[in-house]
Specification:
Two copies of one chain form a homodimer.
Chain A (H helix, E strand, L loop, with lengths): L4 H10 L7 H13 L1 H18 L1 E2 L6 E2 L5 H4 L7 E5 L2 H10 L5 E4 L17 H10 L4 E4 L5 H14 L4 E4 L15 H9 L6
Parallel strand pairs in A: 3-4, 3-5, 5-6
Antiparallel strand pairs in A: 1-2
Helix pairs in contact in A: 1-2
């Protein structure tokens, strides 16, 4: 065949990444091979370094190049509020938005009866322990606005009730959103949570 | 910030691959880091092996894990016909189609006045030399049906005229194509090249 084993294997493995299929993996590999010194070798080195040197932060669950991530180490961040997110990508999204300077707790998923994910498969016990041992003023449940996300949020709210103030992200019309393109659920949520101008 | 330097650098470099942007690069990197042993480390190893061990075949221009690629080494392939393609990805596409068992010549691009690409920037001199020194029955110009591709095909045909038989890929309605969705050029080409049933 045209492309020999290691190149084929590379294409095959690249095509397993989310967002890439066989065709885009071939394009990406050709792009890399042609730019060996600028892309292929640096990428190989970085992947090796991340592979041997990355950790799951033992406090929040973020990935990091140190056993405790930079956010948990950062002494300038507010210690009084904790933001609970489903996944690391959600933590990164919150950080990009730049509206929260407290600490995080990554659950690692959501409760799901269908996939038989219970509280113990997630980092819920660690969350409860963390809230009990530390003195948080507020726990913000920043879970996705999906059925499973909201079920999980309410389950966690029950667990934490009485231990500290628990809040949820607001639902409503997204910024830039047009009513005609929104689903009924979002419009209902925005209607129920409407604000009186004063 | 949330994701420390090496992880950030990996996301940044991945986002430079064709077909990936910042968002899909983040998703891909998270996917890899979570699957360290199955994806991240094997990918790092493969990239390193390809980076240090891949060659541009000195005969056809394909990439390969040996100085001369497997197609050029393969003694079971027809030696009488040569297929000229623009890029390595086109060579791979021809191989996937499985309709040609001769040898290849990768030009490395097309003539382009705008980008000031002349015959000497491409592997045209090597092609002429190859056709003069070897005894090909037919040279098939399998260049893309773009303006630059066809200009290049006609330039090469002029260079090779009298040295061997030169042919071009047929133009027409693609298999599965619907006339209503085809451009005028394709329909004209299909009309001019129509075949009489016998």
């Amino acid at each position: 065949m045209s492309s020999p084993s290691d190149i084929d294997a590379l294409i095959d493995l690249m095509s397993k990444l989310p967002g890439l299929g066989p065709r885009s993996a071939r394009r990406a590999v050709l792009h890399m091979v042609v730019r060996r010194d600028r892309i292929l070798q640096p990428l190989a080195d970085l992947m090796h370094r991340v592979s041997v040197g990355s950790y799951k932060c033992s406090i929040c669950g973020n990935i990091s190049m140190s056993p405790i991530c930079k956010i948990c180490q950062d002494e300038e961040r507010t210690t009084g509020s904790l933001c609970v997110v489903e996944n690391i990508s959600d933590l990164w999204a919150m950080e990009r938005a730049g509206v929260f300077d407290g600490h995080y707790h990554v659950l690692g998923g959501v409760l799901s009866a269908l996939d038989s994910v219970g509280p113990d498969q997630l980092r819920v016990p660690q969350l409860v322990e963390r809230v009990e041992s530390q003195d948080f003023e507020e726990v913000i449940l920043a879970l996705n606005a999906t059925v499973d996300g909201q079920t999980t949020a309410h389950y966690i709210a029950d667990q934490l009730m009485g231990k500290c103030r628990v809040s949820l992200l607001a639902h409503g019309v997204p910024i830039g959103g047009e009513l005609d393109y929104l689903d009924d659920g979002t419009i209902s949520a925005a209607m129920y949570a409407r604000k009186t101008l004063e």
